[in-house]
Design brief:
23% of the residues lie in helices and 18% in strands. By secondary structure, it is α+β, with helices and mostly antiparallel strands. It has one domain: FAD/NAD(P)-binding domain (3-Layer(bba) Sandwich), CATH 3.50.50. The strands form five sheets. Strands 3, 9, 10, 11, 12, 15 and 16 form a seven-stranded antiparallel β-sheet that branches. Strands 2-14-13 form a three-stranded mixed β-sheet. Strands 5-6-7 form a three-stranded antiparallel β-sheet. β17 and β18 form a beta hairpin. α1 packs parallel to α6, α4 packs across α10 and α5 packs across α9. The protein is globular and about 70 Å long. The two termini are 21 Å apart.
């Protein structure tokens, strides 16, 4: 279930290994020809299925970070691909904060390397001094424009290091894909194929190997045998037919909220609290990144319309957990992302307090002189943050998912710490004016089906298998026990590569009878 980054990679791996593969996805059957450089059109790529409700002190908007249709969120992702750091995997052991992963960075490193070579990453492993061990990038770094060069002055004035960021975007022709043209429309999808997404890599490979992708197929339940074991998925077609897709191995790759929703909604005498939820942890430890947005105006022209949606330069000097005088946690700077006039992350929304003539004047100046740095700020996990079922139902009769979230006070202080540093950077770079967005912005859903060492502390094992149903695997960021401080797509693919490789090599461990 789900034809996004993880689901498409696993479909590719299993089909190439000779397995019969069917992928069910609720959304449309997008192709590269459906992608247009338009802020309005880009919204079609965001989640368009049954609404995900939001509750708690810090309500988290679901749609922006999730995808709709073949390609999933990876169709509109920004392609910033740093790796998690070794410290992200041992946070509880090291600091008695958060959770530990059941694997180490070294366990995941060869899978990062394999995906990196297959997909292609542009970067500079030498100047990226924070980067953990791994193979060099297969492509040189992308270009930098005036915005990046101007803001770099501020980081360097404060004694900080700036490097080209690792981007899953072609800086040169790579495996038949053309080099990036730097028009900054990544959020609307990349019709040239320069930006890595499932439509240009894993879905074509999987289809060539015999996999079938079924769009407009809304999964509403897991089909169970009388003894409570999974035998397939129940789905609804665009015409309203209710069908069952039999399967000996089921992969749930429908993103964090939808995976939890399906599991909680599947009930049986042996699964009275949801499917494989005997320990009551299903849906717990929901998490999201908090984003620091720092903007500034400069006398120089910044060329802020050029580049990529993600900043092509990066700084990870603050990728630490403990500080002598300061809040706990890590954050990463993306420097100099391309900006469009309006919409959620556009120029106009950087000053939502302006209207009319004032807004018009601001956009006229900012479209040539604006710069931005975005901090991906770590949020501490909490069992109280969760995905649960609402009493409300969609048109299929299935209960809606609801997220309940409260940002940890320490993580809120970390966000403020990042904003304060960002303002210092802009001032040191020579900004005439700088400001931060006054409210927190959340992105990158994780948790809800976290992995762990055993069933006492987690929902799945390190390969994504449900403890009570070894033939059902969960893929995607929902497995993350901690969220780190980098965009999750690269790690999602590395985990999917590791899980698929293990399942193919050890099929008896995934026997549907357990």
């Amino acid at each position: 279930m789900g034809a996004g980054a993880a689901g498409s990679l696993m479909a590719d791996r299993f089909a190439t290994a000779g397995q019969k593969v069917v992928v069910l996805d609720a959304g449309p059957p997008w192709t590269l020809g459906d992608l247009h450089s338009s802020q309005i059109w880009a919204r079609r790529l965001k989640w368009g299925g049954s609404p995900v409700l939001s509750d708690g002190p810090d309500r988290v908007g679901h749609n922006m970070s999730n995808g709709w249709g073949l390609g999933g969120a990876a169709l509109h992702h920004y392609a910033g691909w740093p790796r998690l750091q070794p410290s992200d995997f041992t946070m509880f052991s090291d600091h008695r904060r958060g959770l530990d992963w059941p694997i180490s960075y070294d366990d995941l490193r060869p899978h990062y390397d394999a995906v990196q070579e297959e997909v292609g990453i542009s970067g500079d492993a030498v100047t990226e001094i924070w980067r953990p061990a791994g193979q060099p990038y297969p492509m040189p770094p992308l270009k930098s424009f005036a915005q990046g060069r101007i803001v770099t002055r501020g980081f360097e004035a404060l004694g900080m290091t700036v490097s080209p960021g690792p981007m899953a975007v072609t800086s040169i022709e790579y495996k038949g894909r053309p080099a990036c043209q730097y028009d900054g429309w990544c959020d609307a999808g990349c019709p040239t194929g320069a930006l890595a997404n499932p439509l240009v890599i894993h879905q074509p490979n999987a289809t060539k190997a015999g996999a079938i992708f079924k769009a407009h197929s809304r999964v509403t339940g897991i089909a169970l045998e009388d003894n409570g074991r999974a035998r397939g998925l129940i789905y609804r077609t665009a015409e309203g037919q209710i069908l069952e897709q039999p399967a000996t191995l089921i992969v749930l790759a429908g993103a964090a909220a939808q995976n939890v929703r399906l599991l909680l909604a599947t009930r049986h005498a042996k699964h009275q609290n949801g499917f494989s939820n005997r320990n009551g942890l299903l849906g717990k430890y929901f998490n999201a990144h908090n984003i620091a947005n720092v903007h500034a105006l400069f006398d120089e022209e910044t060329e802020c319309h050029l580049g990529l949606s993600a900043g092509m330069l990066t700084n990870q000097d603050e990728y630490r957990k403990a500080r002598k005088d300061g809040p706990f946690g890590s954050y990463t700077w993306g420097i100099g992302g391309a900006l469009k006039p309006n919409d959620l992350l556009g120029i106009a929304m950087t000053r939502a307090d302006l209207f009319g003539v004032e807004l018009d004047g601001f956009i006229d100046r900012a479209s040539r002189h604006l710069a931005v740095i975005n901090g991906i700020v770590e949020s501490l996990p909490s069992a109280a943050n969760r995905i649960e079922l609402s009493s409300q139902r969609d048109d299929t009769g299935m209960q809606l998912a609801r997220t309940v979230y409260a940002l940890d006070p320490e993580s809120r202080r970390l966000w403020a710490h990042a904003n304060a540093l960002g303002l210092r950077v802009m001032k040191a770079a020579g900004a005439t004016e700088s400001w931060v967005l006054p409210t927190t912005t959340f992105a990158h859903f994780s948790g809800g089906t976290i992995m762990g060492a055993d069933s006492s502390d987690s929902v799945v094992n390190s390969f994504g298998q449900l403890y009570e149903a070894p033939n059902v695997m969960v893929a995607g960021g929902g497995q993350f026990p901690t969220i780190g401080a980098v965009s999750p797509t690269f790690t999602v693919l590395a985990l999917a590569h590791r899980a698929a490789s293990h399942a193919i090599a050890h099929p008896t461990e995934f026997d549907r009878l357990g």
